[in-house]
Design a protein that fits this description.
This protein starts with a strand and ends with a helix. It is α+β, with helices and mostly antiparallel strands. The protein is globular, with a radius of gyration of 19 Å. It contains five helices and 13 strands.
Length: 179
């Protein structure tokens, strides 16, 4: 009835494994709460790798441009950057440039990238609510949640954001789904 799946794998003499998968819309998940463009968003912790803070003076030196795309050198690796405000077409706060840069290092489809947000607030356990039919087609969001103060926050779909920002190509995603 709830739309989940049950997988049963049994090996004679060794035992049985039962896996129950429920839809994300019925789950309570840990999430990192961030703010960008004056709006709150939730990033599922399953996609989260680490947090990086660049102080105001360091961000202009640390963020480089490679073939027209911003990258940050994290322990010798080039990390592509996705600015959440630009990707979601939100208004930039004027003070964010002087305050420093917050980078949430996330992973989608085995590929790491940095999501630049205005503010990192806290970690919370959230109840995932499904999006309405009008919003289901937007790849940047996987659901919504109601916060303790009664306001809603959208849950970011990290894979969807990576595809929108072309950090991961859609042809690679299609090939992986067909396997």
């Amino acid at each position: 009835k709830i739309g989940g799946t049950v997988d049963i794998h049994s090996t004679p003499g060794k035992g049985t494994t039962v896996k129950i998968k429920i839809p994300l819309t019925l789950a309570i998940i840990p999430a990192l709460m961030v703010t960008s463009g004056g709006e709150r968003f939730a990033i599922p912790q399953v996609s989260l790798l680490e947090l990086v803070r660049l102080e105001a003076g360091d961000s202009t030196k640390a963020i480089e441009m490679v073939q027209g795309s911003p990258v940050y050198r994290l322990r010798g690796r080039l990390l592509p950057l996705v600015y959440l405000n630009r990707e979601l077409q939100l208004a930039d706060k004027a003070s964010s440039a002087q305050a420093g840069t917050n980078i949430v290092v996330v992973q989608a489809d085995g590929r790491e990238f940095g999501l630049v947000v205005e503010e990192i607030t806290e970690t919370e356990e959230i109840v995932v609510k499904p999006l309405g039919k009008q919003l289901k087609g937007i790849s940047a969001y996987s659901g919504a949640t109601i916060m303790g103060d009664g306001r809603a926050a959208l849950i970011l779909d990290i894979l969807g954001l990576a595809l929108r920002a072309q950090v991961i190509s859609e042809t690679r995603e299609t090939a992986l789904n067909e396997k």
